[in-house]
Amino acid sequence: MSQQFLPDNPxxxxxxxxxxxxxxxxxxxxxxxxxxxxYPPERRRSAMxxxxxxxxxxxxxxxxxxxxxxxxxLGVRITDVWETATFYSxxxxxxxxxxxxQICKTLSCKIMGAGNIxxxxxxxxxxxxxxxxxxxxxxxxxxxxxGSCGTAPMLQVGFDFHENLTxxxxxxxxxxxxxxxxxxxxxVR
Amino acid sequence: xxxxAIGCEPLQLRRVHLEHSRSLDVYRRNGGYEALKxxxxxxxxxxxxxxxxxxxLRGRGGAGFPTGMKxxxxxxxxxxxxxxxxxxxESEPGTFKDRYLMERDPHMLIEGMLIAAYAxxxxxxxxxxxxxxxxxxNIMDEALDEARKANLLGEKILGTNFSCEIYTHTGAGAxxxxxxxxxxxxxxxxxxxxxxxxxxxxxxxxxxxPTVVNNVETLTAVPDIIKMGxxxxxxxxxxxxxxTKLWSVSGHVKRPGVYELPMGYDDMEKFIMEDCQxxxxxxxxxxxxPGGSSVxxxxxxxxxxxxxxxxxxxxxxAGSMVGSGGFMVMDGTVDVFExxxxxxxxxxxxxxxxxxxxxxxxDWLVKVFKRIADGExxxxxxxxxxxxxxxxxxxxxxxxxxAASWPIQSAIKKFPEDFKRHLLPLVAGAKEDAALSMV
Lengths: 189, 439
What we know:
The complex is a heterodimer of chains A (189) and B (439).
Chain A: H1 13-16, H2 26-36, H3 48-59, H4 64-74, H5 78-85, E1 99-104, H6 107-111, H7 114-125, E2 138-143, E3 155-157, E4 160-162, H8 167-179
Parallel strand pairs in A: 1-2
Antiparallel strand pairs in A: 1-3, 3-4
Chain B: E1 2-5, H1 24-29, H2 34-40, H3 45-54, H4 67-72, E2 83-88, H5 97-104, H6 106-120, E3 124-129, H7 134-149, E4 165-170, H8 180-187, E5 211-215, H9 216-228, H10 230-236, E6 244-251, E7 257-262, E8 265-266, H11 268-275, E9 285-289, E10 298-299, E11 309-310, H12 312-317, E12 326-331, H13 336-350, H14 356-373, H15 381-392, H16 400-414, H17 416-423, H18 432-435
Parallel strand pairs in B: 1-7, 2-3, 2-5, 3-4, 6-12
Antiparallel strand pairs in B: 6-7, 8-11, 9-10, 9-12
């Protein structure tokens, strides 16, 4: 099955390369080289998701120049990148807020009070789950199980876990974000 | 949150409370990499596989397939590369054991993978971790770097002819990628669609090469199996379920946590009421989902006074499954209709869309649940849910369809009153048995 996706059938260059391609610093390029080195050279496509996360870290979301960059770097078609990107909930195909507040809504969190946490966040931020605030600061999402069932309810800001939540704890987190001094503990590498 | 062993010496959780438990130094000072040395000092790959077979270790990700047998399916004469892939996609609702294993004892996973790679002749191997566990990917990368510097990874490990590399790989938010063939599709940079079996990954997996995909908890059991011998490991548990098992306990217990129990632990009531310190707030136990969201729900009446043995066979007898060990406890305030709706929404969201029964079926299930919750249900809706489940179960491309059906089937069977409560008031004058005639 994997055979058909090998980039051994190159398309005409103009079909592959749109007008704008993202550019990154030499440091980021080196980082990307590091990811590509993990996979057999003829299986570069494996680096698709790691590269998407790096593009998102650098550009905020997977925009068209970012997609073009990945297609170029992996030797695949633009459509191959879109095809993969649209499958995964953590790949943003539209701009997301600087602070992506993701509240787990699955069973253990639900029975431990996730509903209250969501309501509280929605009220404080003035947006509903699925929306981004007008200033582009916050995106609020309800997500499925994040593996913090024993420390429910929980939410993630970016990749940071915040567990055993109370509304007071949520306020502290959101206050820090609003002031702009929230420090992301976990970063994409 | 509690993390520890009950009813046995901690095995997998032996080091989790040590200071700097994730450092190579602490791991080595506490028995780490001894098993790898033992293997490289003269065990043949077949001897390693044999020990794992004798251990009666079964896959801890959910399916419970005997690990030694899975390993022995890899063809010995294949000229292709072989791969060991660690499934750290832990996304089964209620399951969070792998997270703490990787967070607190990453070298145990590296050692387990190295031994598996040696046994299977794999040169390059991957740890596929769910994207949300980014901090664990970073922890694993640091541990891998440490191991590389100590010549525990790379060329000619510890001066032997064994060379092996392990890399981390990230998922990006898709439950289906915990299914091994979907995981391999995702690792190849594609949409996480499951693949047709056969061929099984052992014959044609990653890059169409022989591949073994094992859960974190399965691989971390391997060093101990080598050190104590397969037979001794098996004897910690029961004949068919060897060793110890981690249970992720959540919900309405006073002391949630990760519990390591010997397989065959007697019994579930004692586990909930004593080990987990009973139900919070002095309320009554109503139900338990013992093995992650995909297994049958158990009412309190099937647990209390029933001596439910906690292993693969015991839980089947009791009407459920070990699954991933995601043990979710619910008290009397819980409405099983609501919890089942919640899980059905989960499966609808996570259905990959590849096959019609699952994609359309889970969508219809959610629509029916929603209209019942909105007060627009029809008396026959409980039966309709069961009919839809019947059209999904066994007819979907991968087990996600079954996993979506089983919670609903068992919930309607075991908690008909919770469904009646939502259905009955809808139809003026409806008789109880009309609402749930077929339930």
